[in-house]
Amino acid sequence: MSISSIFAIHLNDVARMRWRDVWIFQRVYSFSLFSSSTTDKLAFNTVDNGYLKLDRVRIPRANMAMKFSTVARDGTYSRADGAKRELSYFTMLQMRFHMVHGSAKTLSKAATIAVRYSAIRLQGLSATAPHGEVRVLDYQSQQHRVLPRVAESFAIFATSHVYNAFCTQATAMVDTSPDSIDATSLAMAHAISCALKVAASELCTRGIEICRRACGGHGYLQSSGLPELGGFAAQFVTAEGENYVISQQTTRTLLKLVGAYRMGVALPPSLEIFHALDGPLPKLSATDYEALFRYRFLSLLHQFDATAAAYPSPDVAIQTNLIESHHLALCYGKYVLVHEFAAAVESLSRATKPIAVALFELFCVTQLQEDLGDFMALVQLPTSARASLHARLTHLLDAVRPHAVALVDAFDHSDVSLNSTLGRADGNVYDALMQSSLLYASDAVPGFTEYLQPLRRLHASSRL
């Protein structure tokens, strides 16, 4: 087949000027090209997505990225000598850690809006002071909805800072001396990035919806900023691997590392927890937060490893037990969040530590309550823990409430970035709502008053 020279095509949606990209390929004589934009998305429409249909197009070997894998002239695929497979997904690893940070940032915006609005809005009479209205944030039910979202934001932020720093260091090593990269550490980082992406994005999307509901009818307004945040955050669940799909990567890597551990292979310090994998469960109380999440994860991993032994390969075991695989990855992600949050709190000064400890406990207690069945079944948490966890929760809500506004102010989101009538830093919520409503002073479409309204009046007075 005759092939012409390499050339570039600029794809332009000229009519709408929505997107542009450059594609380089070899043209064959029987060639067709069709491109277009996709429809609008739930949100994040500042980035356009399109599709391109190519028919009979050949990519020259000179234009292939073949640093770690090669394709011979006869079409044979092979891995480059000495290439570390883990480096091939390094950019995806970076992107997932960035998405963890994005989840923290987006959730913290929703928490900021909900806390500020709840601190301003008065609704209902006090049972102890019948002539005074109650701030919505002083209701225990409202605290239960919005304050754990503040704690979740801090937990995800603390964890993302650790692993973004790891990515920065690893990137420098890849650029200067890729041979010095430890493949086991990189594989572990891949498993963690997938697990954290799952856990953080699930907490984020759920938390934003809780904050929206906590703001009542005003939270349903586009001007509140919450619907846009919810739509924006939804991408984190899907992008770079939908959560139920990408969780398989975590399970696969964990099984491989467990196998290496059992064979006596030296593992990085982050995997020292594997030493407790086959040992007896210690007796834990409801306040042994980090240990509870660690042993919950290890128990699930031990069970899945035993299950996988009955299958021909780990891949078959994972595909046959996808529900358990996803749960394992999610629980691992939550353990990493608890572990890194605890380490971050421990490093704080004496002045800052008390409120940070309260936030850490609030995060752990709410997660324990939500997954209480897991902890009772897997780490033998006694049934009496249910009452003690509830008592601890109410105490923590009381402790965090006076600091709630200051805590969300610490996220340092400007009014411009929040783009919310409810989350204004100056508290002028209702003035902002009125001003935004004036933008829609007339609901009539052009021509309604001149043409359609007279026809409707005529029809209303007709005897037909």
Automatic annotation (TrEMBL):
Catalysis: reaction(s): a 2,3-saturated acyl-CoA + O2 = a (2E)-enoyl-CoA + H2O2
Biological processes annotated in GO: fatty acid beta-oxidation using acyl-CoA oxidase; lipid homeostasis
Assigned keywords, A-Z: FAD, Fatty acid metabolism, Flavoprotein, Lipid metabolism, Oxidoreductase, Peroxisome
Compartments it resides in: Peroxisome
EC number: 1.3.3.6
GO function terms (MF aspect): acyl-CoA oxidase activity; FAD binding; fatty acid binding
Major localization class: other
Family statement: Belongs to the acyl-CoA oxidase family.
Protein name as annotated: acyl-CoA oxidase
Protein source organism: Aphanomyces invadans
Organism taxonomic ancestry: Eukaryota, Sar, Stramenopiles, Oomycota, Saprolegniomycetes
